[in-house]
Design a protein that fits this description.
By secondary structure, this protein is of the alpha+beta class. It has helices spanning about 65-75, 100-115, 120-130, 180-190, 195-215, 215-235, 245-260, 285-295; strands spanning about 1-5, 10-15, 30-35, 40-45, 55, 60, 85-90, 145, 155, 165-170, 265-270, 275-280, 300-305, 310-315. It is built from eight helices and 14 strands. It binds ligand DP6.
Length: about 325
């Protein structure tokens, strides 16, 4: 028996950085994201030939504590036989392009089918969140939220309802040195800005939901850039500091701000890595892609649209 699932990374516009105390991997801050098309994690599950699980990531046999922890978590609730997991990303892994989000959304979706769990979307989103907070949002396409009161990810708008584009500027393809989980803990324990960050996100979240409902690009741009810069302020003021930006990251920020000041509908956002995602309306995408590709230190760009949620490819 073989099951294959695909999921796309999502990019948070209002960011999750920090966790609530206790179990369940509940975020400390509500988040809003867009799920991308084109970039994808494809995960194939087959029965293990022996009593152990086997993990292959991008063609290489791997020991991955987060994947093992995810299997252990699911086995507390369900009977899942030993599995062979074979997962590929068609984009750089663990470099701030949300590979853990797409990876765990695909894995949960594949396990659901493989073990015949018949999970509802809400349940897949809960298990995905427990594996990696941002993965919960990749269960859905288009715009998705992860917020109070129950911290279950939910879809907000389909990709077709507001078809934005994202130009991704790759400035460094290396794996990031600090995992998000460890980084969040470090920020909580050491950044003087952590408390104000957490207490200010509820307002940003509500305002972003309204901007999305109103299709108010300018408002969403202001809120998203602010959320991104506040999160990086927390990261950079942590001890030890997390400075994910490369020189080209900053050059891209300036370029996007200049384009926006000239009236182009574009804004930037950056996650726990050096890549810049320039979110724009379709009419601006060619000019944004050309401008970012010309920047010294930008290794490559990829232009994507909004995509669908995690789903099965074949069984
Ligand atoms: C900066 O979802 O990777 O991308 O729950 O510990 O696995 P864990 O964290 P993760 O953190 C994502 C952080 C972020 C912002 C975001 O996606 O909201």
């Amino acid at each position: 028996m073989s099951v294959t699932a695909i999921a796309h990374p999502n990019i948070a516009l209002i960011k999750y950085w920090g966790k609530q105390a206790g179990d369940g991997n509940l975020p400390a801050t509500p988040s809003v994201s867009i799920t991308l098309d084109d970039l994808a994690s494809t995960t194939r599950l087959t029965s293990s030939p022996d009593a152990d699980d086997h993990i292959t990531l991008n063609g290489e046999s791997a020991i991955d504590p987060k994947i093992s922890a995810c299997l252990t978590m699911l086995r507390r609730d369900f009977g899942i036989p030993p599995v062979s997991i074979d997962s590929d990303n068609n984009f750089p892994t663990a470099a701030g392009l949300a590979s853990s989000a797409s990876g765990f959304a695909a894995l949960i979706t594949a396990i659901d089918a493989f073990a015949g769990l018949n999970l509802q979307d809400d349940d897949r989103a809960v298990y995905a969140r427990r594996a990696s907070g941002s993965a919960a949002r990749s269960i859905y396409g288009g715009f998705a939220t992860l917020g109070p009161p129950d911290w279950v990810a939910r879809p907000v708008l389909t990709p077709e309802a507001w078809p934005l584009n994202v130009v991704i500027a790759i400035t460094d393809e290396n794996r990031k040195s600090v995992s998000s989980s460890l980084g969040m803990k470090t920020s909580e324990e050491t950044s003087p800005y952590y408390e104000p960050w957490v207490s200010s996100t509820a307002r940003d979240y509500e305002a972003a939901l309204k901007a999305i409902a109103d299709r108010d690009f300018e408002r969403l741009a202001d809120l998203s850039e602010s959320s991104c810069l506040k999160m990086h302020g927390v990261m950079q003021s942590s001890q030890p500091p997390m400075i994910y930006w490369r020189p080209a990251t900053l050059s891209c920020i300036h370029a996007v701000r200049e384009m926006r000041a000239r009236g182009l509908p574009v804004f930037f956002t950056i996650d726990a890595g050096p890549q810049v995602k320039a979110v724009c309306l379709p009419e601006a995408v060619d000019r944004v892609a050309d401008a970012l590709a010309d920047i010294t230190g930008v290794l490559s760009t990829r232009t994507v649209g909004l995509g669908a949620g995690a789903r099965l490819l074949e069984t």
